[in-house]
Design brief:
This protein is mainly beta and 251 residues long. It has one helix at residues 3-14, and strands spanning 36-48, 52-66, 69-82, 85-102, 105-116, 121-137, 141-157, 162-179, 184-195, 198-215, 218-229, 239-250. It has one helix and twelve strands, in the order αββββββββββββ.
Length: 251
């Protein structure tokens, strides 16, 4: 199999290299009594036939709450290799701080760094702030609406060299968490991120996860994510999606 065919196969099995919009809602624990929480998630695929394919995804999340303050941290790493040749090298680090202004209103500020070889992103840095409003809250179900503004600095691969793009975007999201019973939970988040000086340039990203706890703090997690980018990095399709299965340990 040629390098071209191997690369196309890897794009097919991953479908999307790495979502441009990071779903921080998927790692947030909404319990007011929480102090320190975290989780480690590991997904891997190994295929051996005429060729050998290996894919590894590792995600570490941490959350610390004290009084009206909440700190969130996410670190994700993705590695893909085919026939001893590295094809994918992706990572993201996200740090977010929340301060509860009122029982249903929270101030948010965040910063994020990421890179993605397959999506031709050499480097992307974000910093933003805004508010988060609790639409509905019960013992089992929660709904939230976030309205933020963020500054984006991106270095991507172009036809004749690296392309630098600096932009200010809105960041509006809607999320919910449904606990059907003690073992089954569903969570979903949808983001809308338009450029403030050009509303025709926007991103829409949605992720829905289904988790089943089968032993104490271990759970099987199935996630489906979809993204639409009206002006993606050169050579990347406008729409992307990913279906992922894995095991998650929460502590």
């Amino acid at each position: 199999m040629s390098k071209k065919h191997v690369f196309l196969f890897l794009l097919f099995i991953n479908t999307v290299a790495f979502c441009q919009v990071v779903n921080i809602e998927s790692i947030r624990n909404h319990s007011d009594s929480s102090r320190f929480l975290g989780s480690v998630k590991l997904d891997f695929d190994l295929t051996k036939n005429v060729n050998t394919f290996f894919n590894l995804t590792n995600e570490v999340t941490l959350q610390y709450a004290t009084g009206k303050n909440l700190f969130l941290f996410l670190n994700t790493f993705v590695f893909t290799e085919a026939n001893n040749e590295k094809f994918t090298d992706k990572s993201v680090q996200h740090l977010r701080y929340n301060y509860r202004l009122k029982p249903r209103l929270t101030f948010e500020v965040f910063t994020q760094l990421q890179k993605d070889k397959v999506s031709f992103i050499n480097f992307r840095a974000l910093v933003g702030l805004g508010t988060r409003f609790q639409l509905f809250h019960s013992e089992k179900n929660k709904f939230f609406l976030g309205t933020l503004i963020m500054y984006e600095h991106e270095n991507s691969v172009g036809n004749s060299g690296d392309v630098i793009d600096k932009a200010t975007r809105g960041n509006i999201y809607f999320s919910f968490n449904l606990n059907l019973n003690k073992k089954i939970a569903i969570s979903s988040t949808t983001y809308y991120q338009p450029k403030l000086n050009l509303f025709s340039d926007y991103r829409i990203s949605s992720e829905t996860s289904f988790s089943f706890s089968f032993f104490k703090k271990l759970a099987l997690v199935t996630s489906f994510s979809y993204q639409l980018d009206k002006f993606p990095v050169l050579g990347i399709p406008n729409s992307q999606y990913k279906l992922e299965n894995g095991i998650q340990y929460t502590f």
